[in-house]
Amino acid sequence: MFRRVAFVLVICAAGLLAAPARADDWDTCKDENAPVDASIAACTKLINSRRNKGPDLAIAYYNRAISYRQKGDTDRALSDYNDSIKNNPSSARAFNNRGNIWKDKGDLDRALADYNDAIKLDPAFALAYANRGDVFDDKGDPNRAIADLDQAIKLNPKYSRAYNVRGVVWKKKGELDRALADFSDAIRYDPKSAIAFANRGDVWDDKGDQDRAIADLTEATKINPNYARAYNIRGVIYKNKGDLDHAVADFSEAIRADAKYALAYLNRGTIYRDRGDLDRAIADYGDAIRINPKADIAYLQRSEMLLKKGDNLAALTDADQAVSLNGNDAVNYMHRAAVMRALDRSDDAISDLRKALSLNPSANRKRQIEDTLRDLGVTP
After folding, report:
1. Which of 72, 185, 267, 335 has its CA 20 to 30 A from that of 176?
2. What is the pLDDT of residues 301-335, one digit of tens each?
3. Nearest-CA neighbor of 109 among 87, 83, 82, 141?
4. What's the CA gap between 244 and 232, in Å, rounded?
């Protein structure tokens, strides 16, 4: 949430508040278009001057907190929101914004508590309802999420973000038509909402309308040419359509837009794998692992490529890591069993296959495992 709250300066008898420097500092501190560092410097001067107390001091901390968050310095932003609330415990916006910081940090319970306080202080605060609904969604409570988002929309019927978040919740619940309607309303009230176009495109894909999906995702990338997620989703659709050139181009665009987007590397690596370009596939899986060392699927897929290249020991190292990261996936054990067979370690392969069977794999995988065990000369 950007600057700024309205405020009234307390004018002192000596007339010092009328000094140009002070007025300039307040103008810069509260100006949402001011450079972030300039805003922080101006707010800091006001805070350190010791001439501001109570609500005025709270506003200086509040505005500086916004700038710190824009810089990605959530710790300093949190500290400033704490001081803002200390100096003005009646500011619903300060509680709401501090809730955003807790959400950024992954502390959903504290975020929820702050949104609760914001709503108590201002029961007509649509933004706080939308934020609380978003947290309820993150906590896996879709019914409460929808109730809060309904209230946000009741308070502000043109609130694009509330429609968008509610659409996300409906999509998770499998209510695709409701999700589609909400994303359409989000777009109606904010035609420049790239995220709403991307979300609606995702739903069109789920409903099997790939052409409409691509149209919406293309619009999302026009609005925001650096929207990595939109490129990635469109790339998956092109892959499913068999248009691998466009798919690779989109995954590459996603990576350009966000060099830390592990999923795009995984998806592009899969196409390279399918094309038989093992070295490029290995490189992309390696980048996915570098970005997300806990992605067992990246280790699994890189292991598969290494096994195809005949580098069995390296394949085993990755297969071990996949099992270590996710010991509840039968596929990880099935693949490691294949590596064990390549290394002539039949007993270890049998052990892994039996473990895979114990994890209740799909009917098709169950048949594959049983057939492999028979090939190894043992009864499933």
Report:
1. 267
2. 999 999 999 999 999 999 999 999 999 999 999 99
3. 141
4. 13
What the chain holds in terms of domains, given with CATH numbers, is: 1-89 (1.25.40)
CA distance 315 to 99: 45
Classify 203 as helix, strand or coil: helix
Query: pTM of the full predicted structure?
Result: 0.86
- Is 259 in a helix, a strand, or coil? coil
Bond into 302 cis (ω within 30): no
The single-letter DSSP state of residue 62 is H
In DSSP notation, 303-319 reads HHHHHHTT-HHHHHHHH
Residue type, 296: D
Q: Please state, in angstroms and as integers, the Cα–Cα distance from residue 5 to each residue in 32, 50, 56, 142, 310, following that order.
A: 10, 21, 11, 32, 64
Buried b (16+ CB within 10 A) or exposed e, 72-93: ebbeebbbbbebbbebbeebbb
Give the chain's largest Cα–Cα span: 97
Q: Which single residue is written with the structure tokens 């922080």? A: 40
